[in-house]
Amino acid sequence: MSEQSVPVPVTIVQGREVSDFPEFAPEAARGRVLRVTVTGEEVLHRVNRDVPEEMLGGAELARLVDDMFMTMYAAEGVGLAGNQVGVDLRLFVYDCPDDDGVRHVGHVINPVLDERDLEDAVVVENEGCLSVPGPHAELGRAEHATVRGVDKDGDEVVLTGSGYFARCLQHETDHTLGRLYIDRLSKRERKRVLKKMNEMASNVMERRQERAKELEAELAG
């Protein structure tokens, strides 16, 4: 019997397939762990400012992206938007698999979500949020999504995904427009989720602090 080939995991960075990529995006090693905002904080509930053109290619924006990657990993998330670290700017970072096991990593500045194709399926799955620490709820999202924007240097970025990654793209773009996933729930379900969050939040925050220390030590080594 012939030797069976082992499939090589696929990683797509900034919308382009790469042959090799580390466990954590390189940005994280340069970043700091920032505080994650929680639902109810004003910056989470309004449309954030577009990143101005003069910030593109600059050190301030690059540092923010580094910090957001580090914070996302410390919080054990797959995506994180600027307002989730208290910054009134429209951007997000992500490190998220799709339903086929392909890993997608990168960031996008001033994201715009393409309108949903009316023939595209709406899939109901569990969804959570780092700014709603703890609980999850079932929510319908389009099976496919495309987000367009630029990277931190101003170069065009087009991200297309399906399944879980498509959900991530929709979720994070929502954040930049001041909308959390719980805002898409019925009043009754939203109330249930917030009640559960209040019960779970302290344990989640404690775990994040522990994880941040572990990650800082790991990346420093």
Task: Give a description of the structure.
With 221 residues, the protein is of the alpha+beta class. The protein has one domain: Peptide deformylase (Peptide Deformylase), CATH 3.90.45. The protein is built from 4 helices and 9 strands; from the N terminus they run E-E-H-H-E-E-E-E-E-E-E-H-H. It has helices spanning 27-30, 59-74, 163-176, 187-220; strands at residues 11-13, 16-18, 79-81, 91-97, 103-113, 122-129, 132-142, 144-150, 156-162. The strands form 2 sheets. Strands 1, 2, 3, 4, 5, 8 and 9 form a 7-stranded mixed beta sheet that branches. Strands 6-7 form a two-stranded antiparallel ribbon. Strand 1 (11-13) and strand 2 form a beta hairpin. The longest helix has 34 residues, at 187-220. The chain is globular and about 45 Å long. The protein starts with 10 loop residues before the first strand and ends with a helix. The model is unreliable at 1-6 (pLDDT under 50).
**Rg estimate, integer Å:** 17 Å
Q: How many structural domains does the protein architecture include?
A: 1
Quote the distance from N terminus to C terminus: 44 Å
Share of helical residues: 25-40%
Architecture in CATH? Alpha-Beta Complex
**Overall SS class:** alpha+beta
Number of helices: 4
Give the overall form: globular
CATH H-level homologous superfamily name: Peptide deformylase
Relevant terms:
globular; two-stranded antiparallel sheet; alpha+beta; Peptide Deformylase; single chain; 221 residues; 4 helices; seven-stranded mixed β-sheet
